[in-house]
Amino acid sequence: MRTAILELLKQNSGQYISGEEISQALHVSRTAVWKHIQALKLAGYEIEAHTRLGYALRQSTDRLLPEEIKVHLTSVVLGQEIHYFSEIGSTNNEAKKLATNGCPEGTIVVAEAQITGRGRLARGWFSPPGKGIWLSVVLRPPFSPMDAAKCTLMAAVGVNRAINSVTGTGCGIKWPNDILWQGRKVVGILTEMSAEMDAINYVVIGMGINVNIDQQDFPSEIAATATSLAVAAGRRISRVKLLTAILAELESTYNTVKASGFAPVLADWRQQSITLGQQVDVRGVERHFTGLAVDIDADGALLIKTPNGIERVLAGDVSI
Ligand code: BTN
What we know:
Layout: H1 2-11, H2 19-26, H3 30-42, E1 46-50, E2 54-59, H4 66-72, E3 82-85, H5 91-100, E4 108-111, E5 132-139, H6 148-167, E6 172-174, E7 178-181, E8 184-195, E9 200-210, H7 229-233, H8 239-260, H9 263-272, E10 279-283, E11 288-296, E12 302-306, E13 309-313, E14 317-319
Parallel strand pairs: 3-4
Antiparallel strand pairs: 1-2, 4-5, 5-9, 6-7, 7-8, 8-9, 10-11, 10-14, 11-12, 12-13
Helix pairs in contact: 1-4, 2-3, 6-8, 6-9
Biotin binds next to helix 5, strand 5, strand 8 and strand 9.
């Protein structure tokens, strides 16, 4: 109902619409209309109320509210169920809980801020309020658990495509799934899964997207290596439009994998990669070496040419 009222207010583009008109159009009482308007105001919408004229929307909110997301949503599975938090520990933790309790595929968890945002390799993730997209998507892929690692490459391809079409910034993918602009990280992806021996229960794809963070606001530890899409584009980016574009591209990439396997996505990954053809430094759990990144194989492992032959890297930190 809140979404429908908001739609009516938006259609009226800043003009007043009376409580009576809304109540007739949506078949609800005027008291219910009033209550929903109060809730929308609390959520951050600037709505002017006039005793005789009714209500007029003055300012939409920049929050990632389900009502706002639904207006732009084009994906048909991803984002049909939305769990929104103004603040949360970690959207991935919440998504894993929901997935364990049987939420439908495509459920998303989105937050304005994360208090204990988690990154790869047990690191933290800087997630300040209102400036990024801190998002987790629940998938239930019909693949073998052996293929789960490739979900992360699939996510990077979908997210990078959406980012470049919305912002025009020319970002690229650093193996396996960081998205960089001019050598600085703008997106990190943390994929987590629960599986049996032969089947995946769920995969949670967690995405941290630095959207409208000013360069000086990054903590000193990451200030030299991180940046945001707003810095890259030289303008503020609509978080809602970017989020819905990401869901659409991720859904399309996922559908491609389900229909044709991972080969087309790995081909797209190669095209969007900024790692291939570069001299890289690899820090794994037990080894540290350098070499030329030449390709990824069918499992998504990075192939590195070294004086001792081709090394295959499935996990670890690779710097260019
Ligand atoms: C990385 O280290 O590069 C991965 C960062 C992933 C961060 C995102 S933000 C949304 C989701 N919730 C988390 O706690 N982490 C992921």
